[in-house]
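debug: dumping io for the single-chain case to check the tokenizer round-trip. Nothing else runs in this session.
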Amino acid sequence: MKLTEYQNLKDYNTFGMEVAAQRFLQIENADEVPSVIREYLQEKPYYILGGGSNTLFTKDFDGIIVHPAFTGIELMEQTSDDVVLRVAAGEPWDNLIQYCIKRQLYGIENLTAIPGLVGSAPVQNIGAYGVEVKDTVLKVEGYVISTGEPFSLTNPECRFAYRNSIFKQELKHDCIITYVWFQLSKIKHFTLSYQGLAKALEERELPLTLHSVSDCVRKIRDAKLPDPKMVGNGGSFFKNPVVPIEQFTELTVQYPDLVGYDAPDGMKKLSAGQLIEKAGWKGKRLGNAGTWKNQALVLVNYGGATPNEVLQVAETIIHDVKTLFDITLEMEINQI
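debug: decoded output
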């Protein structure tokens, strides 16, 4: 492990916020986790930081930041139909995508180009273009910080939901994930329920392969989302709201083009980005923060933005959407 005092966190959060941590501990081997818990996480404030892609630091962190940096992808089991991989928490997510494409393993190609590390994927239950990571997670390994005990949670035990899991509920801020197990298919199949992806593939007239689907997803994302290395951002800032079908039907009278997807229990999932755009916020800015010109769901740091400027934009958007649609947007990003 490697401990640094007064670490600047600008390079460890994709919003590019100029904040610092009193102490920064990088874990370089999963076997170090128990001693990290015993020696560093019993008293002072702490935060487990992955790739920093879904995090907004609102001020300097007066405590210790723990950053899992251990990597590795292990083939644990395989049959004629599928394989089981054990992937270290510090492995970059897109490295796993490329590993699977190279070996013709199906299931996560729609999640191409999502920033962050593998250990963060089950926490947020990352999802895109009709696929969620819960569809392939077999189990998650780690340690409970408050007890120091190891855990191994099966898929049902992780209690996955839309952008949610047990790691954002009972185990929030009380666990360090070390490994995620994935079950991926060797049998050719694709999820093309997202109309934009299916249309893009059809327009390109390419054979349907893992590479073509992944490449198409990457191009769609690049067209909509700014590169954090160029323009600071945390990806989707708000969750897509879920409303009763009656409310959706009423809204379509005034807004016939309103996008709605079927959700459980007779509900409809709306596009937060569309609601924000209709509220007049696409490409708009207040000071050095605002929304991205190509995707209103993404709040950005146009350069030198303070955390307060970003939060002011977010709070104003929530107010305007509530006023226009009677829908309260919920932030997806973690505020620290």
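debug: round-trip ok. Residues 318 and 329 are 6 Å apart (CA to CA).
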